[in-house]
Amino acid sequence: MNSVSDFESLQKRIVRCRKCPRLVEWREQVAREKVRRFRDQDYWGKPVPAFGVQDAKFIVIGLAPAAHGGNRTGRMFTGDGSGDWLCEALYRYGFASQPVSLGIDDGLVLKNCLITAVARCVPPQNKLLADEIFNCRDYLKEELELACDKKVVLTLGRVAFQAFVRIWRESGMCPNGLDKKFLHGGEWFLPGRIYLLSSYHPSRQNTQTGKLTRSMFHGVFRRARAILDTQGE
Q1: pLDDT of residue 36
Q2: What is the pLDDT of residue 196?
Q3: Which of 90, 91, 133, 209 would give a disulfide with 95, using CB separation of 3.0 to 4.6 Å?
Q4: Residue 69: alpha-carbon gap to chain centroid
């Protein structure tokens, strides 16, 4: 198989995954019980596959689907506040065809961008257990291996940052290890000629408290665009 068919096969395996009983129970409960504003909609209620193409140069790694965002719509960062922030930034800097991400049939097309996550199922209270991160890690690792054209990787939040660093260290690309600490606006040039960028996650808690402002968030995407433009995307 070629890398495209390998990538598509991987996404199908992700959607069928039932490795974590707690997450399976929760995602399906949320899909059954719904919330009032979405009570007439059919929820996805399964693991959420990556969104975009495997030959993208820009990869965004989040934490996990939102209960009534990705778990409802079946698409990463779609249908919730975090998705609004992310899509607006992607559009502003030329990585998306439109500034909104409402539903799987909204016409949104990513441009040279792949959105994925550490975990593919919504966790209770948005908190993953260590074994759940471990169970899902191979999916992210496989995606990163198949995304052979990647030039810039943006991690949203500490958990995504730590997951990527661990995968990269274990890949053998960093023989002396990779000892980096998470911070907003961090930037590292890694062996393998990959730029790693880090940002606070655009969660409601971070955006409503002002820990993450739009100016701060957009600055990270501005930098990603500048790197790719310099390399002749």
Answers
A1: 95
A2: 96
A3: 90
A4: 13
Report residue 82 as tokens: 């975090």
Strand order in the sheet with 58-62: 51-52, 113-117, 58-62, 152-156, 194-199, 187-190
For the question of whether the overall pTM of this predicted structure is more than 0.85, the answer is: yes
Q: Give the pair of three-digit tokens for residue 46.
A: 């399964």
Structure tokens at 111: 């441009």
Tokens of residue 3, six digits: 């890398």
Cβ atoms of 217 and 199 closer than 8 Å: yes
Among 100, 117, 99, 1, residue whose Cα is nearest residue 52: 117
SS3 call for 14:
helix
Closest CA to 117 of 106, 131, 128: 128
d(CA 10, CA 120): 13
